[in-house]
Design a protein that fits this description.
18% of the residues are buried. The chain is built from 14 helices and 8 strands. It has 408 residues and is mainly alpha-helical. It has helices spanning 18-38, 77-86, 102-113, 158-164, 172-181, 188-195, 202-209, 239-251, 256-267, 279-307, 317-324, 336-348, 351-358, 370-387, and strands at residues 7-10, 43-44, 95-98, 116-119, 133-136, 141-145, 148-152, 276-277. The chain has a domain at 238-406. α10 (279-307) packs across α11.
Length: 408
């Protein structure tokens, strides 16, 4: 039985990690380009399906089989997980958004209070945890015991490992991590031998150890502006900035109005049984999600101004806060199929026609003619059958990671 527990999330990355952040953004962008180039005729519908056929297995013991380019995780995934945890009575009180990187706060907690850290970050084995230990998510599995099914996995104690490897007592696993980082093709025996020799560059080693030092603070009290808030729930990364950059590049390819109207008309060309979804429809969904996320950030800014009792509040900010409070949680943002359903609903209720009138546009700008729609659907179905095989029934497992958030 756990006496105490906490789930730590990054509050923000320090300035020293700006290069790391840029590398991650470039990596995601490159992955998306590779995935897009692998399916030039449209996005495979099964990759963006929102209908939950079955939940992915928790703590699987085998690696997933990949027969196509790996799509990057959704940009809002972590924030959606935080949202869902905060909505549950079981976990809301243990969620911690910390003013820095979460791994240092996990290590500090275990250093002071003991316990085990569940993580996927191997860097936590370098921290000084005293008698604490680390368990990796990839090693967890559900095993049957006399007391029933239990979640089990190996524990790694950095202090115990350092003792068994006979590492210098004043350096411990940090020395091992340092020597490992200096090797382009590390071999365990060679790294261990280097650990037991003299340091060639003591200053470089001290700089390496800085991120693994014990924290001077574990709360928001030293953070300007936010110091008076007990546990802020702000999104760590303003990922809508990245989305806006990507969307801007897309919009520059043609007139922005034509691009938007074209995306809406493309929605009505998607057949229900189509194996491919036009990329314009995927882009439109991304813009809808980016808009909702931007409004979410605006809501957080207004809430923050209210919490700190900002002088001279913006006129109408109270009413705007009330309106923004009705925004859906991240897990409920419309998927591609949700966007298609939304547009169909707007069309059936004549809302799109009214929007066209309000914008002084002909209805054809938003609504394709029945004849062109029928031809387009037949063409899409024929093209899809030629370029993309239907998914086999035995592989009907939802690839939407947000599906797991629907259960506790």
């Amino acid at each position: 039985m756990l006496l105490s527990a906490a789930i730590y999330f990054d509050g923000f990355l320090p300035a020293s990690k700006s290069e790391v952040r840029l590398e991650r953004i470039l990596k995601v962008s490159s992955s998306l380009k590779v995935y897009r180039s692998g399916f030039p005729n449209g996005c495979p519908a099964r990759q963006i399906a929102s209908t939950r056929i079955s939940l992915p297995p928790l703590f699987p013991t085998d690696a997933p089989i990949r027969d196509q380019p790996l799509i990057p995780p959704p940009p809002f995934l972590v924030a959606a997980v935080v949202d869902k945890l905060c909505q549950t009575s079981k976990y809301a009180t243990v969620v911690r958004l910390v003013p820095g990187e979460a791994d240092a706060y996990c290590a500090e907690d275990v250093f002071r209070n003991g316990g085990t850290i569940l993580t996927s970050d191997s860097d936590l084995t370098i921290h000084d945890l005293k008698l604490g230990a680390v368990t990796f998510f990839r090693d967890l599995h559900i095993a049957s015991t006399e007391e029933g099914d239990q979640l089990m996995g190996p524990k790694f104690s950095p202090s115990d490992i350092a003792r068994r490897l006979q590492l210098p007592q004043d350096q411990g696993m940090r020395r091992f991590g340092y020597e490992l980082s200096k090797s382009s093709r590390p071999k365990f025996a060679q790294v261990l031998e280097n650990c037991k020799g003299d340091l060639l560059d003591p200053d470089e080693f001290r700089r390496f150890c800085i991120p693994y030092e014990t924290l001077e603070t574990t709360d928001w009290s030293d953070v300007p502006v936010l110091g008076g808030i007990d546990n802020p729930t702000l999104d760590a990364r303003l990922s809508e900035v990245v989305l806006q950059c990507l969307i801007l590049a897309y919009a520059l390819e043609e007139d922005k109005q034509d691009a938007c109207l074209g995306s809406i008309k493309q929605v009505f060309s998607v057949a229900k049984d189509s194996n491919l979804v036009p990329w314009d429809v995927v882009h439109l969904t991304a813009q809808v999600q980016a808009t909702l996320y931007s409004l979410r950030i605006l809501a957080q800014v207004l809430d923050l101004m209210y919490e700190i009792k900002a002088e001279k509040p913006v006129q109408g900010s109270k009413q705007l806060r009330e309106l923004l409070a009705t925004l859906p949680p991240l897990a409920d943002y419309p998927s591609v199929s949700g966007t298609i359903a939304l547009m169909a609903s707007l069309k059936d209720s004549d809302v799109l026609a009214k929007v066209a009138t309000a914008l002084d546009l002909p209805e054809e700008a938003l609504l394709p003619s029945k004849e062109s729609k029928s031809k387009s659907q037949k063409k899409k179905r024929k093209k899809a059958s030629e370029t993309e095989p239907r998914a086999r029934p035995e592989k009907k497992v939802s690839s939407n990671p947000f599906d797991i958030l629907e259960t506790e």
